[in-house]
Amino acid sequence: MTLTNVLEVDGVVKSFGGFKALNGVSLKVSQGEIVGLVGPNGCGKTTLVNVVSGIYSCDGGSVRLGGKDVTHLPAHKRVLFGVNRTFQVPKPFKDMTVQENVELAWNFGGRHGSLRDSVLGTTGLEDLKDRVTSTLNTAQQKRLDLARALATNPQVLFVDELGAGLNPSELSDLAEMLRGISKLNVALIVVEHLMGFLEALTTRVVVLEAGKEIFEGNIKDAIRDKKVVEVFLGG
Amino acid sequence: MLFEYAVVAGVLFGLFYAFLSIGLNLVFGVQRIVNLAHGDVIMIGGFASWELYYTYHISPLLSVVLVIPPTVLAGFIIYRLIDGPLSRAQDPEMLSLILFFGVSQILEALVTIFLGNNQRSIPDSSLVHGPVHFLGQSYPGVWWIVAGASIPMVGLVILYLYRTKLGTATRAIMADPIEAAAVGIDVRKVSAITFGVGLAITASVGAIAPFMIGGVDPSEGVNLTILAFAVIVIGSLGNIGGTVVGGLIFGVAFELAQLYLPSWSSLIPYVLLLAVLLFKPSGVLGKRVRSA
Predict the structure, then answer these.
(1) CATH, range A5-233
(2) Of the candidates A77, A107, A149, which has its C-beta nearest B165's C-beta?
(3) Are B169 and A94 in contact (CB < 8 Å)?
(4) What's phi and psi for A131, nearest 5 deg?
(5) Gene3D superfamilies of this UniProt entry (chain A) (predicted)?
(6) Residue A157 to residues A72, A135, A198: CA-CA distances in angstroms?
(7) Which single residue of A75, B89, B113, B265 could bond A54 by disulfide (Cβ 3.0 to 4.6 Å)?
(8) Do A91 and B175 touch (CB under 8 A)?
(9) Per DSSP, which regions of A99-211 are E strands?
(10) Is the ipTM of this complex over 0.95?
């Protein structure tokens, strides 16, 4: 079976003043695939997420979603083209309930989707749907962030350090949840520091260092790769 | 009995102050724009009401509604013009301060050039004849009419924010514009509309403000901006419900000061502003101290 590339990032460049945060990064992801995006702090992972999701405009290269060039589209239009992301520090709309947050996302970003009613169940928030979001703890806020992104019916979803701060049991539940989401044909790019967590999810990883891709391939090979080891362990 | 009079008058003025300030809070809440021309927009609404009354015999109460459509349109256009420079600025709040200070000066100068610098007033009889008696006291009838008009206008803003799709998007942008974009909201478009709505509400209160502040003149903008700013800081910046609370606190405090310390009463806006900034910087209804 041939899998279609739903996301094609080609030679993306992003600079902040004189600092090149991304220097020609390319990435292809297929429908329903899970890819790990790893690298040390400041290597450009979140910048890449911001560029692909349209929060930042890029200085070079291109981003294609489902074959369409979305490089110059603003963030809200890219949501309609099927790309979304979670945030490292989630900021739910605080004077709204969990349900209202998800409804808002469905109303503006996911009208064509059928996920609205199921995302609360998928993310384990069904019992909290009437809670005002300012009363949620960080883990619950992260799940709401994921639920809101899912409600926009994405084909490509960046999950930015969702596992940070979770205990092993919570990480196991999260891995199960993400596997379930990928089975809905959503391509997941999981940005994470926790290699063990990624191993439970996928075999394919992309490693960034100083805005450049230094490795792409099997996670087991990445762990043995000289360059990757140098980057993570300082040689 | 004088105490009761001051409290009732304070509540009536408090409702008016809430109406007078809500547009400023809406505009600040969405794009962190500090609109120093807020009072000048009220002044223009006042002159429009004066002109409509004397030229076309239109009631100022009707002018409250009539000034809305052209101001929404003007606000939408102005926002589109300033959005680019503001979104590219390193410190958009400071830029908006400078930008709207300039707008304020231009509006005041233009109105002075075209209409002169005389104070104009609209007779109370255009709204109501005679006083209103309440709890054994007699109050100017226009106070009750203006306070009565303020309630549905403030209510409409709250309904807009909490019961419409556009209003919900506005609240999402107030919470976090980046997260709002991430759920598919066109932040630029919704912000432009909200800016227009904020200006329209502001011009709208101007149509009846002359009855509460004694008239309308081109130089009144600065004082009205300070008053509105005090009200929204007391209530909580960016919190629309807080504006109502801020207006009522300000109104009652001002009337009580006029009763017991009349020569000090003009200091009330500044004293309340300082007290809130010192002891509860997030405002009476604020949950946390803002970083911005």
Answers:
(1) 3.40.50.300
(2) A107
(3) no
(4) -80, 140
(5) P-loop containing nucleotide triphosphate hydrolases
(6) 19, 26, 16
(7) A75
(8) yes
(9) 156-160, 187-191, 204-209
(10) no
